[in-house]
C-alpha cells in the first residue's frame, strides 16, 4: 500500500493519470486509433521513439509507455535522443524532463548544427534529412526496425497546404514510410491524428516546460521570419484565418488527400515515379 501511495505522488504518475483520464479522448484514444488505422505497429517490433526535447516527442514517449502497459501487441521500445549540438542549457532541460517523466533516454551526439550553419539554401530541409539519417543509423545499431517521430495532425495539414503554395505539388506527410537507405527500417508517425492545441493543453495542465526551438541557425539569422520556418508560420496563420469563416477547413484539408480522383488530375506520378498525363486515358 505504501508503494502505491509513493508512486501516486510522483510527477510522472500524475502525468500518466492525466493521459488515462483527463486527456484519454484527445490524446490516448487518437494515438491508438492512428496505430490501428495505419497499421503502425506489428508484433515483435522494436521501435526507437525519437525525442527531440519538445512537447510532441515527450508526449509521444508517454503515450508509448501507456500503450506498452496494455501489452496487447508484443513490442519493444527504445527512447532515443540525438543531440545535434544543443547548448548546455537545452541539453540539461531534455535530461531533466526525461528524469521527471521517468523516460529512460539513450542519448547520442552528432555535430549536425555546425555542419549546416553555413548552408544558405534550404538549411532546415538539409538539417532534417541529416537528423533523420543519424536516427535511422543509431536505431538500426540498437536493433530497432522502426523509428517514431512526433509529427501531429496540424503538421500534416500544414504540409499539404505548403506543398501546394510553395512547391507546386499535391502531397502529404505520410503516417508511415519505408526507409530508402536503411533496409528493413520504417518511419512511423503515431501522433498523426492528435491536434497541436491538445498537446499544448496537456503540457500546460501538467505544468511541464519543454524545449521550443533549439536550432543554432535560427539563433544567428532571421530564418525564422523569412525562410522555411517562416513559410510554415505563414501557412499556420492562413489556416487559422480561414477557420474563422469555415470551421471545417482543417478537416477538409486533411481529407483532401484521402479523396483524390485521378480522373480529375492533369497529371500524376505512380509509385515508380513515372509521370502519367490525362491525355493517355482521354484518347482511349
Question: Mind sketching the topology for me?
Answer:
Blueprint: H1 2-8, H2 11-20, H3 24-37, E1 45-50, H4 55-70, E2 75-83, H5 88-100, E3 105-109, H6 112-116, H7 123-141, E4 146-148, H8 153-167, E5 176-178, E6 186-188, H9 196-205, H10 216-220, H11 223-226, H12 228-245, H13 249-256, E7 267-269, E8 275-277, H14 279-282
Parallel strand pairs: 1-2, 1-4, 2-3, 4-6
Antiparallel strand pairs: 5-6, 7-8
Helix pairs in contact: 8-12
Concise account of the structure shown:
The chain has 284 residues and is an alpha/beta fold. Helices cover 52% and strands 12% of the residues.
Order of helices and strands: HHHEHEHEHHEHEEHHHHHEEH
Biggest sheet: strands side by side, in what order? 3-2-1-4-6-5
- Helix percentage range: 40-55%
The secondary structure category is: alpha/beta
Looking at the overall shape, the CATH architecture is 3-Layer(aba) Sandwich
Q: What's the Cα radius of gyration? A: 20 Å
- Identify low-pLDDT runs: 1-6, 221-226
Report mean pLDDT, rounded to a whole number: 89
CATH superfamily membership: HUPs
Give the number of helices.
14
Briefly note the CATH topology name.
Answer: Rossmann fold
Number of beta strands: 8
Distance between the termini: 76 Å
**Rough shape?**
globular
CATH structural class: Alpha Beta
Largest sheet: 6 strands, mixed
> How many structural domains are formed by the residues?
1
* Range of strand content: 5-15%
Amino acid at each position: 500500500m505504501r508503494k502505491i501511495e509513493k508512486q501516486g505522488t510522483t510527477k510522472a504518475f500524475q502525468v500518466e493519470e492525466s493521459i488515462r483520464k483527463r486527456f484519454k479522448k484527445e490524446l490516448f484514444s487518437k494515438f491508438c486509433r492512428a496505430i490501428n488505422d495505419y497499421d503502425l505497429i506489428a508484433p515483435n517490433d522494436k521501435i526507437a521513439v525519437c525525442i527531440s526535447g519538445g512537447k510532441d516527442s515527450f508526449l509521444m514517449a508517454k503515450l508509448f509507455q501507456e500503450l506498452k502497459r496494455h501489452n496487447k501487441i508484443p513490442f519493444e521500445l527504445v527512447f532515443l535522443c540525438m543531440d545535434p549540438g544543443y547548448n548546455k542549457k537545452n541539453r540539461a532541460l531534455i535530461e531533466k524532463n526525461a528524469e521527471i517523466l521517468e523516460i529512460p533516454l539513450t542519448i547520442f551526439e552528432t555535430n549536425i548544427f555546425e555542419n549546416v550553419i553555413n548552408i544558405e539554401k534550404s538549411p532546415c530541409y538539409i538539417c532534417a534529412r541529416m537528423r533523420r539519417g543519424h536516427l535511422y543509423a543509431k536505431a538500426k545499431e540498437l536493433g530497432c526496425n522502426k523509428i517514431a517521430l512526433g509529427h501531429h495532425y496540424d503538421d500534416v495539414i500544414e504540409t499539404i497546404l505548403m506543398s501546394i503554395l510553395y512547391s507546386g505539388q499535391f502531397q502529404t506527410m505520410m503516417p508511415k514510410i519505408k526507409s530508402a537507405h536503411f533496409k528493413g527500417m520504417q518511419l512511423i508517425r503515431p501522433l498523426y491524428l492528435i491536434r497541436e492545441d491538445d498537446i499544448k493543453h496537456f503540457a500546460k495542465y501538467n505544468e511541464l516546460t519543454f524545449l521550443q526551438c533549439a536550432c543554432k541557425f535560427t539563433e544567428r539569422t532571421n530564418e525564422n521570419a523569412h525562410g522555411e520556418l517562416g513559410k510554415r508560420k505563414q501557412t499556420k496563420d492562413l489556416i487559422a484565418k480561414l477557420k474563422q469563416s469555415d470551421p471545417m477547413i482543417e478537416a477538409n484539408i486533411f481529407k483532401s488527400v484521402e479523396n483524390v480522383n485521378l480522373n480529375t488530375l492533369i497529371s500524376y506520378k505512380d509509385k515508380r515515379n513515372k509521370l502519367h498525363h490525362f491525355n493517355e486515358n482521354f484518347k482511349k
